[in-house]
């Protein structure tokens, strides 16, 4: 969901006169893929060391990683289609 929000935000930003020049496809691709990556696992390490909600944190990290494995290739296809449409300069 967050990559989609980022993509829509950058589309809107690109449509604003004067600001659209700063939105390139490289920026769109990098930020969209960054939002698609799994959540940091540092929080899991903190939960394990303190013994608080370590199972819940590990489960969240697992779900985040598995969804990223599936969704990052999907976002790559979406970004390739956007690049071929030449929406961003």
How would you characterize this protein structure?
- The protein has helices at 2-15, 25-36, 42-50, 54-85.
- α1 runs antiparallel to α2 (25-36).
- By secondary structure, the chain is mainly α.
- It has one domain (2-85).
- It has four helices and no strands.
- It is elongated.
- The two termini are 25 Å apart.
- The longest helix has 32 residues, at 54-85.
Radius of gyration: 17 Å
- The average pLDDT value, as a whole number, equals 89
Fraction in beta strands:
under 5%
Largest sheet: none
Number of strands: 0
Residue runs with pLDDT of under 50 for 5 or more positions = none
Helix and strand arrangement:
Blueprint: H1 2-15, H2 25-36, H3 42-50, H4 54-85
Helix pairs in contact: 1-2, 2-4, 3-4
In short:
The chain has helices spanning 2-15, 25-36, 42-50, 54-85. It has 89 residues and is mostly helical.
Structural descriptors:
89 residues, mainly alpha, 4 helices, 75% helix, elongated
């Amino acid at each position: 969901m967050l990559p989609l929000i980022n993509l829509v935000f950058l589309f809107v930003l690109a449509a604003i006169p004067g600001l659209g020049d700063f939105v390139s496809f490289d920026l769109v691709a990098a930020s969209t893929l960054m939002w698609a990556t799994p959540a940091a696992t540092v929080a899991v390490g903190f939960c394990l060391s303190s013994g608080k909600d370590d199972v819940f944190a590990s489960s969240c990290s697992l779900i985040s990683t598995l969804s990223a494995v599936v969704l990052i290739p999907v976002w790559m296809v979406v970004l390739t289609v956007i690049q071929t449409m030449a929406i961003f300069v």
